[in-house]
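Q: Could you write out the predicted structure for this multi-component system? I'm mainly interested in how the pieces pack against one another.
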Amino acid sequence: MNCPSDWPEPIVRVQDLSESGQPTIPDRYVKPPLERPRPVTNSDLLGDVNIPLIDLGGMFGDDEDAKRSIIKQVCAACRDWGFFQVVNHGVRPQLMDRAREVWRQFFHLPMEMKQVYANSPKTYEGYGSRLGVQKGAILDWNDYYFLHYLPARLKDHAKWPAMPESLSREVIEDYSAELVKLGGGLMKILSMNLGLGEEYLQNAFGGENIGACLRVNFYPKCPQPDLALGLSSHSDPGGMTLLLADDHVTAGLQVLKNNAWINVKPAPHAFIVNIGDQIQVLSNAVYRSVEHRVMVNSEGERLSLAFFYNPKSDLLIQPAKELVTAERPALYPPMTFDQYRLFIRTRGPQGKSQVDSLRPATSSCESS
Ligand code: OGA
Ligand code: NI
């Protein structure tokens, strides 16, 4: 099965809607009442709750105690949250700023220049405004750009924007190379913390042949932010996500924790890391991907760069043998990431319904 090569209805750019100055949003963007972002979230009630913040600086030094402490913090964050932020991660702050800057410039180019890169659901590469191909679906309030960095075979500079200037491809290259490094380092930590060898997860992902792609999300101002979502609730289908968000925007990413939505407040130059469905499968649900969504606001636009560290797309991904026991049988059947991601590509973001639907009906083992 493949995704269709065309969208089921004409594409409308959210940025055009936003810039039209209309005081109301079209019905297509109005969420059913239970999915709307307000009025109250757990963070509103509890004040300061945030996902864990971990300083990775010690991983680059010689202090073994410091390393052990960081590894433990990552372990707790993966088990308790599935979401955490890292600072002193080794990626240069200037490069992060530059990456945000070139993408912001891209989204502010005249529409005709962006339309050259209009995407289709066949591969999703390029400039897009919806996820999923269901006719009549309620849509999210965002435009995005999606591109492949790895494997090299799928990387095609012609599908990357050449604007705002020729340098932008160089920035995307540098940024992606750094994020592959950071992702690889985190994979080792996760693998050790799961009691698997340091290289287990990386090898299960295909070693050097992993997939890596970038989705740059652009959330224009929304005149009715209480009715819409920038991105509906979903878990990330891939391995691990490294997100660079605007750190000056108040309302944005929310994470579901104990059935309440927690606002993520990004630290300056932090990456927000989250576990995707493929690590949930490989870890036999010791680590779980976590539902998250994005709110929009009426004051300003928001930009985020989501870098997806994924398994090689045609490898079978299944629970690690070491984590399968008589008491805890394999919770998921083997499946390739190519097969797996068709779900979100056709149906759009649907909470955790996909990964949860894979569990055998007889399973009574529900962790956390
Ligand atoms: C995503 C995502 C969050 C954000 O792209 O999968 O969850 O803050 N983005 O844009
Ligand atoms: Ni996501």
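A: Regarding packing and overall arrangement: The first strand starts at residue 53 and ends at 55.
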